[in-house]
Amino acid sequence: MSNNYTNSSLVGYTRLVSKHSGQRTHCIDRITPHCVVGQVTAARLGDIFSGTRDVSSNYGIALDGTVGLYVEEKNRSWCSSSNANDQRAITIECASDPKPPYAFKPVVYDTLVKLCTDICKRNGKKKLLWFGDKAKSLNYKPKSDEMVLTVHRWFCNKSCPGDWMYARMGDLAQKVTAALNADSSPAPAPVIVKCPYAEPRFCMMYGSTGGGVKWLQWHLNQAAKAGLKIDGIFGPLTRAAVLRFQKNKKIAVDGIVGPQTRAALKKAVG
Fold this sequence. Notes:
By secondary structure, this protein is of the alpha/beta class.
């Protein structure tokens, strides 16, 4: 079992509570999302875990998407009514509606995807699995690069994480696994685009024609998505694109393409 535990950099609020069992006795290979049954702030969740109830979680996601840290990942939280589960699971309480199906706000669900992705990545996992079956999930022995989703309702008579989230567990697993695979893919080599037209050595303005205008139109298309036809004619559409570019770059907005505008276009294209 690795002892190289870390906590998420996504945390925006920290209030470490004493309600935990100390360092976990099993490596992290599960994530258990919960519903709070209330649209709570990160501070309010800290108040709950600091109160009289013997309950806590590693993380919480507030109604505004703030991630709270309450029990460090190295420690076993008191969250899922199961010592065996919580010894190996990162538990996450999520702000939800107070009534069934206990829906999450979009920002909470989006943050849950990001937090689960971060948890998997830091713990060396490449896949997040959801089987939708209690027996299969609890008896499954994850490979070293796998994380398994579990739910509170499997360990006691609760609806947690609520029917809204339960119906999205498969989607959560897919989104996190896709994000992990995307992060592990090598970045594509940059595409170097070279202008096929010679740079003009003169000023251009409305009515100009020739190869220099083609250079201008090509650069406007690359730098400003101008969508111009490269016909070598400095007409009304080309002039309008020049004016927009000059305004955006905070240079003289005169519709005349001289050394300053040409330099800005070359810099924008790279």
